[in-house]
Amino acid sequence: MADVNRGNRPLSPFMIGQYYRPQMTSISSIMVRITGIASLGTAFLLVWWLLAAASSPSYFAVIDGILRSFIGDIILLLSTWAIWYHMLGRLRHVIWDLGYCVEVEISEKMGLGMFVGATVLTLFTALVV
Amino acid sequence: MAFLTDRKRAIGLGSGRSGTHHHWKMMITSAALVVLVPLFVFTFGAGMGGTHEEVLAYFSRPFPAIITALTAAVAILHFKAETEEAIVDYVHGVTGKLLIVAVTAFSYVLIAAALFALVKMAL
Description:
The structure holds 2 protein chains of 2 kinds. Chain A is mainly α. In chain A, 74% of the residues lie in helices and 0% in strands.
């Protein structure tokens, strides 16, 4: 260990890019992180809206108008998909952590289930809400 | 380099002693999300789209207010941990540390603002 070569060793390739083809396991996992960070942005928008409602009718009208505009609707729809996807992805982590379904084939099926599930739940949310 | 002992070279490269805590926190908040997200999406969604008076009346009721407050606290702390994990992975040095401080401050301000708004609407 004392004279270990620290400089000239091969590095492991980065997960995505030219070294690995995209796989269900890697992409579904990366999407959990992306949707998690995006949901912090969603939280900002919704808290802004709540704060506006608590402040004054005129300020509420401005923020509510933005969130209920066409672009606001699209942002909220994508945010809804992200939070559903993140919930399903984190559920998969809990299942894994409890020691179940760690096989690659089942993990891939769960990954597909997360994409399909989030889309179905988002459409259901859009219909109900 | 020749005067470095093995021990000196190993110090600081070992366990941070907080990894299992972080992992456990993620597991707990993840399980909480599975309960809170469906409750929140439909409760909060039902509260949007009304006039200002309707929104005030809706969020003054206990159920929407408590669901929103719980989700604001638990989910934002979860997303904060999620974002910090990404920062630790990809941004190093002073920039990384400052980003973690920024995300932490941002998250707690968001939680405080959400709780303040709910209390103000309820009173």
